[in-house]
Every structure is written in C-alpha cells, then in structure tokens.
Design goal:
single chain; alpha/beta; TIM Barrel; five-stranded parallel sheet; three-stranded parallel sheet; 11 helices; 8 strands; about 40% helix
C-alpha cells in the first residue's frame, strides 16, 4: 500500500516535464563518481553550483551545529525540510539530504520521504542507529535490529512519488558488530528496496573495496575529516565501486576555522583591516547570488 500525503512535483498533473532531481543525479552517477560537497546554507549551495559540481549534500551534523546544538537528532523534520528547500532552490542542484534515523518510527519515516521530495531533494539517507543517534565516526553507537530497519526502508520506499528519488540505507554496523554484519545488513536493506547503500565508518581502501564486492550496486561513500576514514580521492572511490561521495562538513569546517581565527584578530587589534584580502568581496557575493543592483533578480532554474 502506497501512502500519499499530498501532491508533489512528480504528479501526472504537475507543471514540469523536466527530469526530476533524482533522475538527474542518477544520470550523473552513471557517468562516474559524483562529488557532493556539503552545503550548510543556501548561499553555499549556490557557490557549489557555480563551482561546477553536479550535486550537493545537506548534512545533519552541519545543520545541527549551525543551529548551535550537537549532532544527536535534536532538530525536527520541519527544520530539515525548510533548509533543504532553500538549498535546492538556490543551487538548482540535485540534493542528497541526511534524514538521521527517519525522525521516528514507521509513520514518521513515511512522512520524511514525502516532505523531502516536496522540498526538492533528489534523495535521502536513513541510518540503522538507535535514537538518539551519534556521529558515525564516534564510538559507542547502538544499532536497531536488522529486521526493524528493513521495515523502515520498505515503508520509506513505499512513500516515494518519484521513482527516481533515492532512498539510501546507511549502516553503522562496521564500528559496532563488524564488516560481515555490515555487508549482511546492506544486502538485507537492498532486498527491502533501498536504492543505494551508505556504509559508514569504513577504515581503509581495502574495506571500501571489500564492502563493494560484498554488496554490489549503487553505493555512497563518506569522505569526512577527523574520522575513521583515511583521505581517498573521488577518482579512487570510483575505482573502488562508489558512485556518490559526500564531503559533508568540509566547507563548514573551513568557514568556521576562518571565523574563529578572524574573531581572534578583531579581538586583539580592534580592526579587520588586515583580513580584507581574505574576504569575499561585495562584487563576488553579488555574482554568487546572481544579482546586479538596479536590475530584476531572477530565480535560478535547474
């Protein structure tokens, strides 16, 4: 039984006949590995598009810390959906968005898919951790039973209106019960209907390769800093069998590093004059916004 909460852009009576965000992302992934830099707000999403990327990512961790709270599932589905809509609209890119543990059980996870599709996302990933969840690269995680996660995946797939919308099942089993269980869970999630699998917390190229061989199909890799995964290039991920690669918090970390350093300079000297050369100029900002003073501003179209 397919649950319907309301119309989406994929309805037969919809106004647009252009490929959906999910279809565009799938097409890009067919050509090779797709880098998805993390956009922590809509302006960053526009910058990612201007840099020539084929998609972007909305990280639950980045959204949470931007709101001044830790990444333990404190933000609501509504808060996520609002930000996804802003980033999708501003960037015009296919957006893959973090859905944590689905914002609840069966019924809530259904609504998550509907709201993310309405917000313009190309897909989402949902994880098999117990709520409250932890960052995937921290120890002390707990997993829900595999059967419970399979039911959630089935429910979320049933809620899709756009067949190309990606429901990506993330497993954190590598750091809890080991690689064999991670692969077994991945295959169970695929059998439940997951469009792709996201193995979190793998610790070497050899592990990424072994996982891809053990669970063939569309795979997403997480290239985060300060975690358990070594630095691996986009092309190398492609060779290892991964077609979607997220860089979830990289831009936020770079930006916040500069914010903290600059605040130190301002506090010490009482001026930001020495920092001006490192700033984005007004002209550059307007270019990113697609804005020219005195002329009508136009919405970016995908």
């Amino acid at each position: 039984m397919r649950v319907v909460f309301g119309p989406t852009s994929c309805d037969n009576a919809g106004m647009s006949t252009s490929p959906s965000a999910g279809a565009r992302l799938r097409a890009a992934a067919e050509l090779g590995p797709v880098a998805l830099p993390g956009a922590f707000n809509a302006l960053v999403g526009r910058a990612i598009a201007d840099a020539g990327f084929d998609g972007c990512y909305v990280s639950g961790a980045a959204m949470s810390v931007s709101a001044g709270v830790p990444d333990v599932g404190l933000l609501t589905l509504t808060e996520f959906a609002v930000e996804i809509r802003r980033i999708a609209d501003a960037s015009g890119l296919p957006v893959v968005a973090d859905a944590d543990t689905g914002f609840g059980e069966y019924e809530q996870s259904l609504r998550t898919v509907v709201e993310y599709e309405r917000a313009g996302a190309a897909g989402l990933h949902v994880e098999d951790q117990v709520f409250p969840k932890r960052c995937g690269h921290l120890d002390g995680k707990e997993l829900v039973p595999c059967e419970e996660m399979c039911l959630k995946v089935e429910a979320m797939v049933s809620a899709k209106r756009d067949p190309d919308f990606l429901v990506i099942a993330r497993t954190d089993a590598r750091g809890v019960t080991g690689m064999d269980d991670a692969i077994a869970r991945a295959n169970a999630y695929r059998a439940a209907g997951a469009d792709a699998i996201f193995p979190e917390g793998l610790q070497s190229e050899a592990e990424f390769e072994a996982f891809a061989k053990g669970s063939p199909g569309l795979l997403l890799a997480n290239m985060t800093e300060f975690g358990k995964t070594p630095f691996i290039t986009l092309d190398r991920f492609g060779e290892l069998g991964y077609r979607l690669v997220i860089f979830p918090v990289s831009l936020l970390r770079l930006a916040m590093g500069e914010v903290v350093r600059s605040l130190g300079v301002l506090k010490e000297t009482g001026s930001v004059e020495s920092l001006v050369e490192r700033m984005q100029t007004r002209k550059e900002l307007y270019e990113t916004l697609g804005y020219e003073p005195g002329t009508p501003w136009k919405v970016r179209r995908s």
